[in-house]
Amino acid sequence: MTYITKPSNYHPRLKKNKLGLTRRDYEGPISTLCAGCGHDSISAAIVEACFELNVAAHQVAKLSGIGCSSKTPGYFLKQSHGFNSVHGRMPSIATGASLANHELTYLGVSGDGDTASIGIGQFVHAVRRQLNVIYIIENNGTYGLTKGQFSATNDLESKSKYGEDNLFPPIDLVGMALNLGASFVGTCLAASLACIIMGMYSNWPVSLAPGMGLNAFFTYTVVGEMGYSWEVALGAVFLAGVLFFIMSVTSLRRWMLDSIPLNLRIAMGAGVGLFIGFIGLKNGGIIAANNATFLSLGDFTNPETLLAALGFLVICSLSVRNVPGAILVGVLVVTLSSVFLGLIEYRGLVSMPPSIAPTFMKMDILGAFDIAMLSVVMSFLFVNLFDTAGTLLGVATRAKITDEFGNAKNFDKALKADSSSSIFGTFFGCSPVTSYVESSAGVEAGGRTGLTTVVVGLLFLVAIFFSPLAAIVPAYATAGALIYVSILMMSGMEKLNWSDSTELLPALIIIVMIPLTFSIANGIALGFLAYVVLKISNGEIKNISSGAWFLTAVFVSKFLFL
Fold this sequence. Notes:
By secondary structure, the protein is of the alpha/beta class.
Protein backbone atom coordinates (compact mmCIF):
# COMPACT_ATOMS: atom_id res chain seq x y z
CA MET A 1 0.00 0.00 0.00
CA THR A 2 1.31 3.44 -0.95
CA TYR A 3 0.92 6.21 1.64
CA ILE A 4 1.09 9.86 0.67
CA THR A 5 1.99 11.98 3.67
CA LYS A 6 -0.17 15.01 4.29
CA PRO A 7 1.48 18.38 5.03
CA SER A 8 2.11 18.80 8.74
CA ASN A 9 1.18 22.48 8.78
CA TYR A 10 -2.40 23.62 9.30
CA HIS A 11 -4.26 26.81 10.11
CA PRO A 12 -3.84 27.84 13.78
CA ARG A 13 -7.51 28.79 14.11
CA LEU A 14 -8.83 25.33 13.27
CA LYS A 15 -11.54 24.21 15.69
CA LYS A 16 -10.27 22.11 18.59
CA ASN A 17 -12.11 19.63 20.79
CA LYS A 18 -11.83 19.16 24.55
CA LEU A 19 -8.58 17.26 24.11
CA GLY A 20 -7.03 20.20 22.27
CA LEU A 21 -7.00 18.28 18.99
CA THR A 22 -8.18 19.41 15.58
CA ARG A 23 -10.03 17.37 13.02
CA ARG A 24 -6.76 17.02 11.09
CA ASP A 25 -5.24 15.20 14.07
CA TYR A 26 -7.74 12.40 13.52
CA GLU A 27 -6.97 11.95 9.84
CA GLY A 28 -4.51 9.58 8.20
CA PRO A 29 -2.52 9.72 4.94
CA ILE A 30 -4.09 10.83 1.66
CA SER A 31 -6.41 8.14 0.32
CA THR A 32 -5.23 6.04 -2.62
CA LEU A 33 -8.66 4.48 -3.18
CA CYS A 34 -10.45 4.84 -6.49
CA ALA A 35 -11.93 8.23 -7.25
CA GLY A 36 -15.49 8.47 -6.02
CA CYS A 37 -15.18 5.42 -3.75
CA GLY A 38 -17.73 5.52 -0.95
CA HIS A 39 -15.15 4.15 1.46
CA ASP A 40 -13.58 7.59 1.75
CA SER A 41 -16.88 9.02 2.99
CA ILE A 42 -16.93 6.36 5.70
CA SER A 43 -13.42 7.35 6.76
CA ALA A 44 -14.50 11.00 6.88
CA ALA A 45 -17.52 10.14 9.03
CA ILE A 46 -15.34 8.20 11.49
CA VAL A 47 -12.89 11.10 11.70
CA GLU A 48 -15.72 13.53 12.39
CA ALA A 49 -17.32 11.28 15.01
CA CYS A 50 -14.06 10.71 16.90
CA PHE A 51 -13.31 14.43 16.83
CA GLU A 52 -16.76 15.40 18.15
CA LEU A 53 -16.72 12.69 20.82
CA ASN A 54 -13.24 13.71 22.06
CA VAL A 55 -11.81 10.25 21.46
CA ALA A 56 -8.12 9.80 22.22
CA ALA A 57 -6.51 8.00 19.28
CA HIS A 58 -4.17 5.94 21.46
CA GLN A 59 -7.20 4.45 23.19
CA VAL A 60 -8.59 3.04 19.92
CA ALA A 61 -7.71 -0.23 18.18
CA LYS A 62 -8.55 -0.46 14.46
CA LEU A 63 -9.16 -3.92 12.99
CA SER A 64 -9.86 -5.02 9.44
CA GLY A 65 -10.01 -8.06 7.16
CA ILE A 66 -9.01 -8.43 3.51
CA GLY A 67 -10.29 -6.40 0.57
CA CYS A 68 -10.83 -2.76 -0.26
CA SER A 69 -12.20 -2.32 3.25
CA SER A 70 -8.81 -3.29 4.67
CA LYS A 71 -7.40 -0.01 3.35
CA THR A 72 -9.93 2.15 5.17
CA PRO A 73 -8.35 2.06 8.68
CA GLY A 74 -5.20 3.58 7.19
CA TYR A 75 -7.05 6.81 6.47
CA PHE A 76 -8.20 7.73 9.97
CA LEU A 77 -6.72 7.88 13.50
CA LYS A 78 -3.12 7.54 12.39
CA GLN A 79 -1.91 7.39 16.00
CA SER A 80 -4.17 4.53 17.06
CA HIS A 81 -3.43 0.82 17.29
CA GLY A 82 -4.18 -1.37 14.28
CA PHE A 83 -4.29 -4.94 12.98
CA ASN A 84 -5.07 -6.24 9.49
CA SER A 85 -6.40 -9.79 9.93
CA VAL A 86 -6.93 -12.82 7.70
CA HIS A 87 -9.86 -12.72 5.29
CA GLY A 88 -13.17 -13.01 7.15
CA ARG A 89 -11.58 -13.32 10.59
CA MET A 90 -11.73 -9.76 11.87
CA PRO A 91 -14.30 -10.58 14.62
CA SER A 92 -12.05 -13.34 15.99
CA ILE A 93 -9.11 -10.95 16.28
CA ALA A 94 -11.40 -8.36 17.86
CA THR A 95 -12.65 -10.91 20.40
CA GLY A 96 -9.14 -11.87 21.45
CA ALA A 97 -7.95 -8.27 21.61
CA SER A 98 -10.93 -7.13 23.69
CA LEU A 99 -10.38 -9.98 26.16
CA ALA A 100 -6.70 -9.07 26.45
CA ASN A 101 -7.31 -5.34 27.00
CA HIS A 102 -10.68 -4.07 28.17
CA GLU A 103 -9.55 -0.44 28.23
CA LEU A 104 -9.43 0.15 24.47
CA THR A 105 -12.25 1.06 22.14
CA TYR A 106 -12.35 -1.46 19.28
CA LEU A 107 -13.43 -0.41 15.80
CA GLY A 108 -13.67 -3.11 13.16
CA VAL A 109 -14.01 -2.37 9.43
CA SER A 110 -15.07 -5.11 7.06
CA GLY A 111 -16.40 -5.44 3.52
CA ASP A 112 -19.42 -7.27 2.15
CA GLY A 113 -17.28 -10.18 0.99
CA ASP A 114 -15.29 -10.19 4.21
CA THR A 115 -18.50 -10.35 6.29
CA ALA A 116 -21.32 -11.77 4.16
CA SER A 117 -19.37 -14.59 2.51
CA ILE A 118 -16.28 -16.10 4.09
CA GLY A 119 -16.79 -14.34 7.41
CA ILE A 120 -20.55 -14.66 7.88
CA GLY A 121 -20.18 -17.17 10.72
CA GLN A 122 -17.83 -14.78 12.48
CA PHE A 123 -20.34 -11.97 12.03
CA VAL A 124 -23.24 -14.01 13.40
CA HIS A 125 -21.39 -15.03 16.54
CA ALA A 126 -20.06 -11.53 17.11
CA VAL A 127 -23.66 -10.27 17.16
CA ARG A 128 -24.91 -13.22 19.20
CA ARG A 129 -22.22 -12.76 21.85
CA GLN A 130 -22.78 -8.99 21.87
CA LEU A 131 -19.12 -8.41 21.18
CA ASN A 132 -18.11 -4.97 22.44
CA VAL A 133 -16.83 -3.78 19.05
CA ILE A 134 -18.00 -1.06 16.67
CA TYR A 135 -18.58 -3.15 13.54
CA ILE A 136 -18.60 -1.19 10.26
CA ILE A 137 -19.47 -2.99 7.01
CA GLU A 138 -18.61 -1.33 3.72
CA ASN A 139 -21.24 -2.88 1.49
CA ASN A 140 -21.05 -1.96 -2.18
CA GLY A 141 -22.45 -5.20 -3.59
CA THR A 142 -19.39 -6.19 -5.60
CA TYR A 143 -16.01 -7.86 -5.13
CA GLY A 144 -13.81 -5.17 -6.60
CA LEU A 145 -10.44 -6.84 -6.00
CA THR A 146 -11.50 -9.95 -7.95
CA LYS A 147 -12.81 -8.22 -11.05
CA GLY A 148 -16.34 -7.41 -10.00
CA GLN A 149 -18.24 -10.60 -9.17
CA PHE A 150 -21.58 -10.26 -7.39
CA SER A 151 -21.27 -10.22 -3.64
CA ALA A 152 -23.65 -12.12 -1.34
CA THR A 153 -25.42 -8.84 -0.55
CA ASN A 154 -26.17 -7.92 -4.16
CA ASP A 155 -29.83 -7.48 -5.11
CA LEU A 156 -31.60 -10.26 -6.98
CA GLU A 157 -31.58 -9.85 -10.80
CA SER A 158 -29.20 -6.90 -10.68
CA LYS A 159 -26.82 -6.75 -13.63
CA SER A 160 -23.06 -6.80 -13.65
CA LYS A 161 -20.97 -4.62 -15.96
CA TYR A 162 -20.79 -7.61 -18.30
CA GLY A 163 -24.61 -7.82 -18.50
CA GLU A 164 -25.01 -10.90 -16.31
CA ASP A 165 -28.01 -11.24 -13.93
CA ASN A 166 -27.60 -12.05 -10.26
CA LEU A 167 -29.61 -15.25 -9.68
CA PHE A 168 -29.45 -15.36 -5.90
CA PRO A 169 -31.40 -13.40 -3.27
CA PRO A 170 -29.28 -11.04 -1.16
CA ILE A 171 -28.17 -11.64 2.42
CA ASP A 172 -29.53 -8.82 4.56
CA LEU A 173 -26.84 -8.29 7.18
CA VAL A 174 -28.82 -5.64 9.03
CA GLY A 175 -31.87 -7.89 9.09
CA MET A 176 -29.75 -10.79 10.29
CA ALA A 177 -28.37 -8.70 13.14
CA LEU A 178 -31.88 -7.56 14.00
CA ASN A 179 -33.13 -11.14 13.98
CA LEU A 180 -30.43 -12.19 16.40
CA GLY A 181 -31.33 -9.36 18.72
CA ALA A 182 -35.06 -9.77 18.09
CA SER A 183 -34.95 -13.34 19.33
CA PHE A 184 -33.54 -12.10 22.64
CA VAL A 185 -36.28 -9.49 22.98
CA GLY A 186 -38.93 -11.99 21.89
CA THR A 187 -37.71 -14.51 24.46
CA CYS A 188 -37.89 -11.93 27.24
CA LEU A 189 -41.37 -10.74 26.22
CA ALA A 190 -42.79 -14.26 25.82
CA ALA A 191 -41.24 -15.45 29.09
CA SER A 192 -42.48 -12.36 30.91
CA LEU A 193 -46.07 -12.77 29.74
CA ALA A 194 -46.04 -16.51 30.47
CA CYS A 195 -44.68 -16.02 33.99
CA ILE A 196 -47.24 -13.33 34.82
CA ILE A 197 -50.10 -15.54 33.60
CA MET A 198 -48.80 -18.54 35.56
CA GLY A 199 -48.35 -16.51 38.75
CA MET A 200 -51.66 -14.65 38.63
CA TYR A 201 -53.85 -17.48 37.30
CA SER A 202 -52.51 -20.57 39.08
CA ASN A 203 -50.58 -18.99 42.00
CA TRP A 204 -47.67 -21.37 41.34
CA PRO A 205 -43.97 -20.50 41.88
CA VAL A 206 -43.01 -21.99 38.51
CA SER A 207 -41.47 -19.77 35.83
CA LEU A 208 -41.60 -20.30 32.07
CA ALA A 209 -39.34 -19.64 29.08
CA PRO A 210 -38.50 -21.32 25.75
CA GLY A 211 -37.23 -24.83 26.58
CA MET A 212 -33.58 -25.50 25.75
CA GLY A 213 -34.19 -29.05 24.51
CA LEU A 214 -37.01 -27.85 22.28
CA ASN A 215 -34.80 -24.98 21.10
CA ALA A 216 -32.22 -27.49 19.94
CA PHE A 217 -34.84 -29.66 18.20
CA PHE A 218 -36.31 -26.55 16.54
CA THR A 219 -32.95 -25.26 15.29
CA TYR A 220 -30.84 -28.29 14.46
CA THR A 221 -33.47 -30.84 13.45
CA VAL A 222 -36.49 -29.04 11.98
CA VAL A 223 -34.63 -26.10 10.40
CA GLY A 224 -31.14 -27.59 10.02
CA GLU A 225 -31.58 -31.26 9.03
CA MET A 226 -35.14 -31.20 7.67
CA GLY A 227 -34.60 -27.92 5.81
CA TYR A 228 -37.80 -26.10 6.79
CA SER A 229 -37.74 -22.34 7.21
CA TRP A 230 -37.88 -20.99 10.73
CA GLU A 231 -41.27 -19.45 9.88
CA VAL A 232 -42.74 -22.88 9.03
CA ALA A 233 -41.14 -24.36 12.17
CA LEU A 234 -42.88 -21.65 14.20
CA GLY A 235 -46.13 -22.64 12.51
CA ALA A 236 -45.59 -26.22 13.72
CA VAL A 237 -44.98 -24.94 17.25
CA PHE A 238 -48.24 -22.96 17.03
CA LEU A 239 -50.24 -26.03 15.96
CA ALA A 240 -48.67 -28.16 18.70
CA GLY A 241 -49.52 -25.43 21.21
CA VAL A 242 -53.17 -25.38 20.08
CA LEU A 243 -53.42 -29.17 20.51
CA PHE A 244 -51.67 -28.82 23.84
CA PHE A 245 -54.22 -26.25 25.02
CA ILE A 246 -57.18 -28.34 23.83
CA MET A 247 -55.89 -31.27 25.87
CA SER A 248 -55.65 -29.04 28.94
CA VAL A 249 -59.12 -27.51 28.75
CA THR A 250 -60.85 -30.82 27.93
CA SER A 251 -59.28 -32.59 30.92
CA LEU A 252 -57.61 -35.11 28.58
CA ARG A 253 -54.22 -34.04 29.80
CA ARG A 254 -55.29 -34.26 33.45
CA TRP A 255 -56.73 -37.72 32.80
CA MET A 256 -53.39 -38.86 31.43
CA LEU A 257 -51.39 -37.34 34.27
CA ASP A 258 -53.70 -38.86 36.89
CA SER A 259 -52.75 -42.22 35.40
CA ILE A 260 -49.22 -41.82 36.68
CA PRO A 261 -48.77 -43.78 39.95
CA LEU A 262 -47.56 -41.95 43.06
CA ASN A 263 -44.13 -43.62 42.99
CA LEU A 264 -43.56 -42.44 39.44
CA ARG A 265 -44.68 -38.90 40.32
CA ILE A 266 -42.15 -38.79 43.15
CA ALA A 267 -39.51 -40.17 40.78
CA MET A 268 -40.19 -37.35 38.32
CA GLY A 269 -39.28 -34.79 40.99
CA ALA A 270 -36.12 -36.65 41.99
CA GLY A 271 -35.19 -37.29 38.35
CA VAL A 272 -35.64 -33.63 37.48
CA GLY A 273 -33.47 -32.80 40.49
CA LEU A 274 -30.71 -35.14 39.33
CA PHE A 275 -31.02 -33.63 35.84
CA ILE A 276 -30.56 -30.15 37.27
CA GLY A 277 -27.47 -31.30 39.13
CA PHE A 278 -26.05 -32.90 35.98
CA ILE A 279 -26.54 -29.64 34.07
CA GLY A 280 -24.87 -27.71 36.89
CA LEU A 281 -21.88 -30.05 37.01
CA LYS A 282 -21.55 -29.82 33.22
CA ASN A 283 -21.86 -26.02 33.07
CA GLY A 284 -19.35 -25.62 35.86
CA GLY A 285 -16.81 -27.89 34.19
CA ILE A 286 -16.79 -30.12 37.29
CA ILE A 287 -17.54 -33.05 35.02
CA ALA A 288 -16.25 -33.24 31.47
CA ALA A 289 -16.57 -35.44 28.39
CA ASN A 290 -14.11 -38.29 28.07
CA ASN A 291 -13.65 -40.42 24.97
CA ALA A 292 -12.75 -43.49 27.01
CA THR A 293 -15.21 -43.29 29.90
CA PHE A 294 -17.82 -40.83 28.49
CA LEU A 295 -17.48 -38.70 31.64
CA SER A 296 -14.64 -37.80 33.97
CA LEU A 297 -13.74 -35.25 36.62
CA GLY A 298 -13.14 -31.79 35.20
CA ASP A 299 -9.92 -29.79 35.23
CA PHE A 300 -9.65 -27.96 38.55
CA THR A 301 -6.66 -25.99 37.33
CA ASN A 302 -9.23 -24.13 35.23
CA PRO A 303 -10.28 -20.99 37.17
CA GLU A 304 -13.85 -21.29 35.89
CA THR A 305 -14.18 -24.78 37.40
CA LEU A 306 -12.76 -23.57 40.70
CA LEU A 307 -15.18 -20.65 40.77
CA ALA A 308 -18.12 -22.97 40.07
CA ALA A 309 -17.10 -25.14 43.04
CA LEU A 310 -16.60 -22.00 45.15
CA GLY A 311 -20.11 -20.83 44.30
CA PHE A 312 -21.55 -24.16 45.46
CA LEU A 313 -19.62 -24.03 48.75
CA VAL A 314 -20.69 -20.42 49.37
CA ILE A 315 -24.35 -21.36 48.85
CA CYS A 316 -24.08 -24.39 51.15
CA SER A 317 -22.26 -22.44 53.86
CA LEU A 318 -24.84 -19.64 53.86
CA SER A 319 -27.79 -22.06 53.66
CA VAL A 320 -26.79 -24.06 56.74
CA ARG A 321 -26.70 -20.73 58.57
CA ASN A 322 -30.16 -19.90 57.21
CA VAL A 323 -28.91 -16.75 55.49
CA PRO A 324 -31.65 -15.33 53.20
CA GLY A 325 -30.82 -15.22 49.49
CA ALA A 326 -27.95 -17.70 49.79
CA ILE A 327 -28.31 -18.83 46.18
CA LEU A 328 -28.30 -15.29 44.80
CA VAL A 329 -25.27 -14.38 46.90
CA GLY A 330 -23.38 -17.41 45.56
CA VAL A 331 -24.11 -16.44 41.95
CA LEU A 332 -23.05 -12.83 42.56
CA VAL A 333 -19.81 -13.87 44.30
CA VAL A 334 -18.76 -15.98 41.31
CA THR A 335 -19.76 -13.31 38.76
CA LEU A 336 -17.92 -10.50 40.53
CA SER A 337 -14.88 -12.72 41.04
CA SER A 338 -14.87 -13.47 37.31
CA VAL A 339 -14.93 -9.77 36.47
CA PHE A 340 -12.07 -9.11 38.94
CA LEU A 341 -9.99 -11.95 37.46
CA GLY A 342 -10.62 -10.78 33.89
CA LEU A 343 -12.50 -13.95 32.91
CA ILE A 344 -15.51 -12.00 31.70
CA GLU A 345 -15.84 -8.51 30.32
CA TYR A 346 -18.04 -5.81 31.76
CA ARG A 347 -20.06 -4.57 28.78
CA GLY A 348 -22.03 -1.78 30.37
CA LEU A 349 -25.22 -1.53 32.32
CA VAL A 350 -28.06 -0.74 29.90
CA SER A 351 -28.72 -0.62 26.18
CA MET A 352 -31.70 0.05 23.96
CA PRO A 353 -33.35 -3.19 22.85
CA PRO A 354 -33.40 -4.06 19.15
CA SER A 355 -36.66 -4.14 17.21
CA ILE A 356 -38.80 -7.26 17.52
CA ALA A 357 -40.35 -6.65 14.09
CA PRO A 358 -38.19 -9.26 12.24
CA THR A 359 -39.71 -12.13 14.28
CA PHE A 360 -43.08 -10.78 15.48
CA MET A 361 -46.07 -12.69 14.00
CA LYS A 362 -43.88 -14.36 11.39
CA MET A 363 -45.06 -17.96 11.89
CA ASP A 364 -46.20 -19.72 8.72
CA ILE A 365 -49.19 -21.75 9.91
CA LEU A 366 -50.36 -22.78 6.44
CA GLY A 367 -46.85 -24.02 5.62
CA ALA A 368 -47.00 -26.30 8.68
CA PHE A 369 -50.13 -28.01 7.28
CA ASP A 370 -47.94 -30.51 5.50
CA ILE A 371 -48.13 -34.27 6.00
CA ALA A 372 -44.36 -34.32 6.39
CA MET A 373 -44.68 -31.86 9.29
CA LEU A 374 -47.00 -34.17 11.26
CA SER A 375 -44.09 -35.85 13.03
CA VAL A 376 -42.64 -32.43 13.90
CA VAL A 377 -45.92 -31.19 15.38
CA MET A 378 -46.37 -34.41 17.39
CA SER A 379 -42.76 -34.23 18.61
CA PHE A 380 -43.28 -30.69 19.91
CA LEU A 381 -46.56 -31.82 21.52
CA PHE A 382 -45.29 -34.95 23.28
CA VAL A 383 -41.98 -33.54 24.45
CA ASN A 384 -43.67 -30.42 25.79
CA LEU A 385 -46.44 -32.47 27.42
CA PHE A 386 -44.26 -34.78 29.45
CA ASP A 387 -41.41 -32.36 30.08
CA THR A 388 -43.96 -29.99 31.58
CA ALA A 389 -45.61 -32.73 33.61
CA GLY A 390 -42.33 -33.79 35.14
CA THR A 391 -41.24 -30.23 35.82
CA LEU A 392 -44.54 -29.13 37.37
CA LEU A 393 -44.86 -32.18 39.61
CA GLY A 394 -41.19 -32.02 40.62
CA VAL A 395 -41.24 -28.34 41.54
CA ALA A 396 -44.68 -28.67 43.22
CA THR A 397 -43.35 -31.43 45.45
CA ARG A 398 -40.39 -29.31 46.49
CA ALA A 399 -42.62 -26.29 47.06
CA LYS A 400 -44.84 -28.48 49.31
CA ILE A 401 -48.03 -27.69 47.44
CA THR A 402 -48.93 -31.39 47.00
CA ASP A 403 -50.93 -33.65 49.28
CA GLU A 404 -49.94 -37.12 50.50
CA PHE A 405 -51.22 -38.63 47.25
CA GLY A 406 -49.04 -36.40 45.10
CA ASN A 407 -51.92 -34.19 43.92
CA ALA A 408 -51.02 -30.52 43.55
CA LYS A 409 -53.28 -27.56 44.33
CA ASN A 410 -54.51 -25.67 41.24
CA PHE A 411 -52.72 -28.16 39.01
CA ASP A 412 -55.32 -27.77 36.27
CA LYS A 413 -54.78 -24.02 36.21
CA ALA A 414 -51.02 -24.53 36.00
CA LEU A 415 -51.52 -26.86 33.03
CA LYS A 416 -53.70 -24.31 31.22
CA ALA A 417 -51.26 -21.48 31.88
CA ASP A 418 -48.37 -23.59 30.60
CA SER A 419 -50.15 -24.80 27.45
CA SER A 420 -51.40 -21.34 26.48
CA SER A 421 -47.83 -20.03 26.74
CA SER A 422 -46.75 -22.33 23.92
CA ILE A 423 -49.26 -20.62 21.64
CA PHE A 424 -48.54 -16.94 22.22
CA GLY A 425 -44.78 -17.62 22.43
CA THR A 426 -44.89 -18.18 18.67
CA PHE A 427 -46.23 -14.63 18.23
CA PHE A 428 -42.84 -13.39 19.42
CA GLY A 429 -40.85 -15.87 17.33
CA CYS A 430 -40.06 -18.35 20.13
CA SER A 431 -39.90 -22.12 20.22
CA PRO A 432 -42.30 -23.74 22.75
CA VAL A 433 -42.51 -21.75 25.97
CA THR A 434 -42.66 -24.15 28.87
CA SER A 435 -42.07 -24.47 32.62
CA TYR A 436 -38.38 -24.77 33.38
CA VAL A 437 -36.70 -26.87 36.04
CA GLU A 438 -34.51 -23.99 37.30
CA SER A 439 -37.67 -22.70 39.01
CA SER A 440 -36.60 -24.93 41.87
CA ALA A 441 -33.89 -22.41 42.69
CA GLY A 442 -36.58 -19.83 43.38
CA VAL A 443 -38.50 -22.32 45.50
CA GLU A 444 -35.43 -23.02 47.62
CA ALA A 445 -34.94 -19.27 48.06
CA GLY A 446 -38.37 -19.13 49.68
CA GLY A 447 -40.80 -18.80 46.77
CA ARG A 448 -44.06 -20.58 47.47
CA THR A 449 -46.72 -18.57 45.60
CA GLY A 450 -47.40 -16.99 42.26
CA LEU A 451 -45.84 -13.74 43.48
CA THR A 452 -42.44 -15.34 42.85
CA THR A 453 -43.35 -16.05 39.23
CA VAL A 454 -44.83 -12.58 38.66
CA VAL A 455 -41.60 -11.00 39.93
CA VAL A 456 -39.60 -13.23 37.56
CA GLY A 457 -41.85 -12.08 34.71
CA LEU A 458 -41.27 -8.42 35.54
CA LEU A 459 -37.52 -9.03 35.75
CA PHE A 460 -37.61 -10.55 32.26
CA LEU A 461 -38.98 -7.20 31.06
CA VAL A 462 -36.25 -5.31 32.89
CA ALA A 463 -33.63 -7.63 31.39
CA ILE A 464 -34.52 -6.34 27.92
CA PHE A 465 -32.95 -3.00 28.83
CA PHE A 466 -30.23 -4.44 31.07
CA SER A 467 -29.06 -7.00 28.52
CA PRO A 468 -25.36 -6.02 28.74
CA LEU A 469 -25.44 -6.62 32.50
CA ALA A 470 -27.42 -9.86 32.25
CA ALA A 471 -25.12 -11.16 29.53
CA ILE A 472 -22.01 -11.08 31.70
CA VAL A 473 -23.29 -13.72 34.16
CA PRO A 474 -21.46 -16.85 33.00
CA ALA A 475 -22.99 -20.32 33.01
CA TYR A 476 -20.52 -21.54 35.63
CA ALA A 477 -21.74 -18.82 38.02
CA THR A 478 -25.14 -20.53 38.24
CA ALA A 479 -23.68 -24.04 38.35
CA GLY A 480 -23.36 -24.06 42.14
CA ALA A 481 -27.00 -23.03 42.53
CA LEU A 482 -28.18 -25.85 40.27
CA ILE A 483 -26.08 -28.46 42.10
CA TYR A 484 -27.37 -27.28 45.49
CA VAL A 485 -31.01 -27.36 44.37
CA SER A 486 -30.45 -30.80 42.85
CA ILE A 487 -29.34 -32.24 46.18
CA LEU A 488 -32.41 -30.85 47.91
CA MET A 489 -34.78 -32.23 45.29
CA MET A 490 -33.28 -35.69 45.62
CA SER A 491 -34.55 -35.82 49.18
CA GLY A 492 -38.01 -36.67 47.82
CA MET A 493 -36.81 -40.24 47.25
CA GLU A 494 -37.45 -40.99 50.92
CA LYS A 495 -41.20 -40.99 50.12
CA LEU A 496 -40.86 -43.83 47.59
CA ASN A 497 -42.64 -47.11 48.32
CA TRP A 498 -39.64 -49.41 48.54
CA SER A 499 -41.70 -52.55 49.22
CA ASP A 500 -43.35 -52.91 45.77
CA SER A 501 -40.74 -53.69 43.11
CA THR A 502 -43.24 -53.28 40.25
CA GLU A 503 -43.47 -49.59 41.14
CA LEU A 504 -40.03 -49.04 42.69
CA LEU A 505 -37.97 -50.25 39.71
CA PRO A 506 -39.80 -48.05 37.15
CA ALA A 507 -39.36 -45.10 39.53
CA LEU A 508 -35.61 -45.72 39.76
CA ILE A 509 -35.44 -46.02 35.96
CA ILE A 510 -37.03 -42.58 35.65
CA ILE A 511 -34.60 -41.08 38.18
CA VAL A 512 -31.56 -42.52 36.44
CA MET A 513 -32.61 -42.16 32.80
CA ILE A 514 -33.77 -38.53 32.88
CA PRO A 515 -30.21 -37.21 33.33
CA LEU A 516 -28.51 -39.98 31.35
CA THR A 517 -30.72 -39.43 28.28
CA PHE A 518 -30.59 -35.68 28.90
CA SER A 519 -34.36 -35.59 28.46
CA ILE A 520 -37.18 -35.45 30.98
CA ALA A 521 -39.64 -36.84 28.41
CA ASN A 522 -37.46 -39.84 27.49
CA GLY A 523 -36.80 -40.69 31.12
CA ILE A 524 -40.51 -40.66 31.92
CA ALA A 525 -41.30 -42.73 28.83
CA LEU A 526 -38.76 -45.45 29.69
CA GLY A 527 -39.92 -45.65 33.29
CA PHE A 528 -43.56 -45.82 32.30
CA LEU A 529 -42.96 -48.58 29.78
CA ALA A 530 -41.08 -50.54 32.45
CA TYR A 531 -44.02 -50.03 34.82
CA VAL A 532 -46.51 -51.58 32.39
CA VAL A 533 -44.21 -54.51 31.52
CA LEU A 534 -43.52 -55.32 35.20
CA LYS A 535 -47.22 -55.13 36.11
CA ILE A 536 -48.06 -57.56 33.29
CA SER A 537 -45.24 -59.96 34.19
CA ASN A 538 -46.36 -59.94 37.84
CA GLY A 539 -49.96 -60.78 36.96
CA GLU A 540 -51.28 -57.34 37.92
CA ILE A 541 -52.66 -56.41 34.52
CA LYS A 542 -55.97 -55.37 36.12
CA ASN A 543 -54.13 -52.68 38.11
CA ILE A 544 -53.11 -50.91 34.91
CA SER A 545 -55.53 -48.07 34.25
CA SER A 546 -56.96 -47.17 30.85
CA GLY A 547 -54.90 -43.99 30.98
CA ALA A 548 -51.77 -46.03 31.54
CA TRP A 549 -52.52 -48.14 28.47
CA PHE A 550 -53.07 -45.00 26.41
CA LEU A 551 -49.79 -43.49 27.58
CA THR A 552 -48.00 -46.73 26.78
CA ALA A 553 -49.28 -46.54 23.21
CA VAL A 554 -48.15 -42.90 23.01
CA PHE A 555 -44.65 -43.72 24.26
CA VAL A 556 -44.29 -46.71 21.92
CA SER A 557 -45.35 -44.50 19.01
CA LYS A 558 -42.85 -41.87 20.13
CA PHE A 559 -39.92 -44.29 19.99
CA LEU A 560 -41.06 -45.97 16.77
CA PHE A 561 -42.05 -42.99 14.67
CA LEU A 562 -40.56 -39.84 16.24
